[in-house]
Structures are given as C-alpha cells and as structure tokens.
Amino acid sequence: MKPIYYVLISMIFLCGCRKSQEDNTSEDMSLYGDTILLGKSSTILSKMKTLKVTSEPYKMEFTTSGVVKAIPTNYAEVASPFAGRITKSFVRLGQKVSKGSPVFAISSPAFYETGKECSQAREEMELAKKSLQRVKDLVQNKVGAQKDLEEAEVNYELKKKDYENAVASLKVFQVDSKNIAPGQPMIVRSPISGEVVTDKIVMGQYMKEDAEPVAVIANLDQVWVVAHVKEKDLSLVHPQDEVEIQLVALPDQSIKGTVYHISEMLDEETRSVEVIIACDNRSRMMKPEMYGTVKLSEREQNVVRIPTSAILQEEDSNYVLLDLGNRRYLRRKVKTGTSADGKTVVLEGLDAGDMIVTSGAFYLIDAQ
Fold it and tell me: Which structural domain range is residue 238 located in?
C-alpha cells in the first residue's frame, strides 16, 4: 500500500511543478500592441545582446548586369528603298564614310518612274507659272477677266504643291531632284558618318523593296551599356554618376562610364528600371552585344549600418527590435539598403542613438 501512496504523491508533485513552470513561462513574455514585455525572471534576458545605433561614413554600391549597345543615332542599316539590281559598290568593310557618301548604286524601274513623275511635275508647274503670268498681263491691260486670274493662281498653287511633294519624296532618299536624269541609277547614300561594319553588297544582286539591309554603318567611338537596376536600388543611381564596368570578354580591365539616362518607366515583371551608361570606346574594346557587370555606387555619406543579424523578416517587410529599457522591446519596421561585411544599411526606421537587439531577437518572434 505504501509504494502506491508514494507514487501518487510523486505524480501530484510533478504535475504541480509542471503547472507552475507553465505559469511562469506565460508570465515571462507579454505582448501589448507592438511592444513586448519580459518578466523579471525571464531566462531570455541573458540570451539577448543589444547595440547602440550609430551613423558612419559609407559608400553604398551594388552590381548588376549590362549589355553593350550601339547608340541608335550612331548606327544605320542601309537597304534599297526600291526594288532593283545592284550595279556598283562604293564602299568596303572597315571603310570610313561621311554622311551623304555613296554606298551602292541600284538600277530600279520604280526609281526611274519616280524620277519621271518628279520631272513631269516640275514641267507642269513651269507651264502653270507661265499661264499665270500671261493672265496677269491680260488683267493689267484690262483685256482679261478676274475670274481667269483666280483660276490660274489656284492651278499654279496646286501644281507647285505637287512638285514640292515629289521633291520631298526624293529628298528622303538623299536624291537631288535637280540632277536626276532619265534612266539614271539610284545612288543609295549613308545617312550618318561612321565606319562600314557590315558589307553584304553583291554586284548584280537583285533586291526587293523589303529586302534585308546589305550594309551597316556605325560610329562606335562612343557606346551605351544598358543595365537594369532593381527598384530597391534605384535611389543610389543619379544622372552623371561615374560607373565601373567589367566585361566578360575583358575580366582584368575596368572600364569607366557615366550614367546618361534613367528610364521613367518601371518594368512590372522584373521590378527594375533601365539605366543607360555612356562609355568612351575609341579604343574599340567594347563590341555591341558584349555582356558584363556594372558596379554603381553612391557618393560617400553618413548612414546607419547595423548587424544583419538584427534584422527580422515579416511577410514583405523587415523589422528590428528596439530596446526601450525596463525589459520592454518594440517592433520597428525598417527599409534596408545594401549589405556588406555582415552589416546592412538602414535607409528608414532607425536613428543614431536607438538601442536595438542584435542577438537573440528570434526568442521574441512568437510573443503573444
């Protein structure tokens, strides 16, 4: 009987101890809004470390990918605007050309017809002009009617407009309407100054109106590097900032560039903004479509940096625990920047002088 009695006494004692321990645990931690209060005898206190926040000089920087691109205004694909057969080439690969320099000649019936229409429009305008002058003379000598004069003026204006339209259509193709002759081949000219980087001109080749370009002219003395900067890093990028670029093809060389343009539009899918960087390329090291990394950095300034271990995550936001004293801790949302050397830049949410928990904060995550 006694052994059973002792067992019952032991069980009652253990249950009482366990209940007492649970009561103490529940009293160790209480939650009031965003503030956590620890009990005086809480064992968590000895497991936490705190730090006073300070500001320090720091140069925030980050890297992203980039692709070398030819500047659109310094790049031209040359094709024939009319169907026809190539009769002559004026350039070779690597040749320097000026704006308006001949690239190739093409014999095109469609071009002949366009030149013919322009010449015909010019002749009709001249005839209308002579007719107008004749009617004016008759009216001045009081042998002509005012109605005839008005009709002649309207006819001349119409013919003049037709001729101007014909001249403008040829001017688009850099063709001087005054020097055009019947049966003359069309001279296709370079729209920019630069270097012939692609030459696919074949003598006797027949080209359709929608044929692919047979020559590419480019000025690659300066190129662009197009990078995509994430939304969270956009505050670090400013026009005219100096940028460091390293190409995959030239891993040991650092190339300097300057931020030329920051797009006003955000890509919804990648949450990034296109940043265009202008680079001097007179050495011709950078080739269009080369891939590389872009290092962007902000000017050195005083910022708040805290140990990364002090930052906790909650859904889509970050927060830290502020030590308010008297065993009270407050959850404070923060906006973070770049991280390096075990520290993270805090852009918003903390000020110098704040006390934060740097170690053991996870013990308070489940506070209720």
Answer: 62-73+219-301
